[in-house]
């Protein structure tokens, strides 16, 4: 399977614990995005990378959240000192940005998500 | 900032009925517009897209036309099937293909 993969698919943790999610994008994709989705809502942007550079981070994102993409391939999203309000589905998506002279449509390829439940 | 407003759901239709899900957007410049679909137990996947004004995206019998004058991208299908039951998300991506902005989704249930 050459799609976007996320791990773990489900995580149950106690409030105050740290959790880490991993995302492996489609291999030739240079952009990687993290979104959060709660029940009845659309995906909410968290952050994105082009290769290893983090280009944008949501202003709504608490400093308890940190994401990395150290070698420009897989990415991790860590949540420190989890709170019940962090319970959500965390989505990873990837895309290919071709270059400045070509229209990049922004089509995203999503993984199946990592569901976090904070007790 | 950019925003997407979708018709509130849920929507319940009988098989072979006509479907319309409304979507309007607010954005600067010339965004690309998308409909993504999420089937039960699966991740979001692209259904169709349009990259400039008056473009029509189509796939699996679904269509949507990029209307810049009304800032809309309504999703339509002439005859829905039970297998179309899913959550549909309208989204936009800015010209430089930075972060995408999504609507809240519309749940469609098609009954036989």
How is this structure best summarized?
The complex is a heterodimer of chains A (119) and B (112). By secondary structure, chain A is mainly β. Chain A has no helices and eleven strands.
Give a description of the structure.
Chain A is mainly β and 119 residues long. Helices cover 0% and strands 47% of the residues of chain A. Chain A is built from no helices and eleven strands. In chain A, strands 2, 4, 5, 6, 9, 10 and 11 form a seven-stranded mixed sheet that branches. In chain A, strands 1-3-8-7 form a four-stranded antiparallel sheet, with no helix packed on it. Chain A is globular, with a radius of gyration of 14 Å. The relative contact order of chain A is 0.33. Chain B is mainly β. Chain B is built from no helices and twelve strands. Chain B has strands at residues 3-6, 11-14, 19-21, 23-26, 32-38, 45-50, 56-59, 62-65, 75-77, 86-93, 101-102, 106-111. In chain B, strands 2, 5, 6, 10, 11 and 12 form a six-stranded mixed sheet that branches. Chain B has a four-stranded antiparallel sheet with strand order 3-9-8-7, with no helix packed on it. A two-stranded antiparallel sheet of chain B has the order 1-4. In chain B, a hairpin with a 7-residue loop joins strand 10 and strand 11. Chain B is globular. The model of chain B has no long low-confidence stretch (mean pLDDT 94).
């Amino acid at each position: 399977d050459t799609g976007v993969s996320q791990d773990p698919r489900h995580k149950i943790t106690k409030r105050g614990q740290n959790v880490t999610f991993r995302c492996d994008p489609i291999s030739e994709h240079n952009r990687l995005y993290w979104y959060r989705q709660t029940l009845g809502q659309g995906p909410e942007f968290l952050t994105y990378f082009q290769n290893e550079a983090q280009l944008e981070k949501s202003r709504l994102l608490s400093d308890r959240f940190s994401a990395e993409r150290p070698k420009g391939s897989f990415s991790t999203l860590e949540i420190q000192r989890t709170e019940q309000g962090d319970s959500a589905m965390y989505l990873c998506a990837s895309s290919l940005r071709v270059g400045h002279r070509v229209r990049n449509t922004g089509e995203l390829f999503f993984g199946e998500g990592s569901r976090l439940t904070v007790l | 900032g950019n925003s997407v407003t979708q018709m509130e759901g849920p929507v319940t239709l009988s098989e072979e009925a006509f479907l319309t899900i409304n979507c309007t957007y607010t954005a600067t410049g010339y965004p690309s517009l998308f409909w993504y679909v999420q089937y039960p137990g699966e991740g979001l996947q692209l259904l169709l897209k349009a990259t400039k004004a008056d473009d029509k995206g189509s796939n699996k019998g679904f269509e949507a036309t990029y209307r810049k004058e009304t800032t809309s991208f309504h999703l339509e299908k002439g005859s829905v099937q039970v297998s179309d039951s899913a959550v549909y998300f309208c989204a936009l991506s800015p010209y430089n293909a930075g972060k995408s902005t999504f609507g809240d989704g519309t749940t469609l249930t098609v009954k036989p």
